[in-house]
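Practice record 12: protein with magnesium ion.
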Amino acid sequence: MTGTRIITIKTPADFDKMLVAGKCVAAMHDVVRSAVEPGVTTGHFDKLARQVLDDFDCQPSFLGYGDPGNPFTGVLCTSPNSVIVHGIPGDHVLSDGDIISIDAGAIYQGWHGDAAFTVAVGDVPDDVANLIAVTEQALWAGLEQAQDGNKLGDVGAAIEATATPHGIGVVREYVGHGIGRQMHEPPSVPNYGRRGRGFRIKTGMAFAIEPMFNLGTEDSYILEDEWTVVTADGSFSAHFEHTVLITEEGSIVSTLEEPRPV
Ligand code: MG
């Protein structure tokens, strides 16, 4: 967090820059998604993503983030299997039956885009495939509620309601966020909530909405590297995220190759 509690209002010109950052993030996703297969390392994905940042004249959001004594060392977070978020790219080799979550961030002329997806590596059991599908569904249910005049509780409630029938654990410890000149801006955007409650969404705001769902319980802990967040019960975890801009013409998902209204 930045230490500020100010919720920033963006101009159309600011949104134009966030759209470029978003396109870059989408391209990072694409290049990594095409490279996912057994035998590949998470460090390889990071290398591919760095090239895309250069191609778009963007800077990484994640590299160097955090405590100066232990900054994040990747341009991606690469989170396999029971890693919920913030996995560090490196020597980890993917195997058939794994899942991998890729979180990418980019800055264009000072403005951020942030998005994540989870994909199966080869064949996975039905419950794992379902976890991935339900988490993606929940993201879109949340995005649809991110409209001028709605409340953040509408977003959280829609996400949570998608998980409930499946008995899937909704992570509460980590949440979505406002986004703009900072990757993480107020307000927090929880993946749970009550309709009609919470902060009112207004034109000019931007949010990163990001459900994190576990096959088991919601409980997590952090590994000794002080970054990697894993499920307490070792169950698999999925993570989907997009950045959404609340513009005068409606809400637009910016972190897609072709940004589109929601
Ligand atoms: Mg985020």
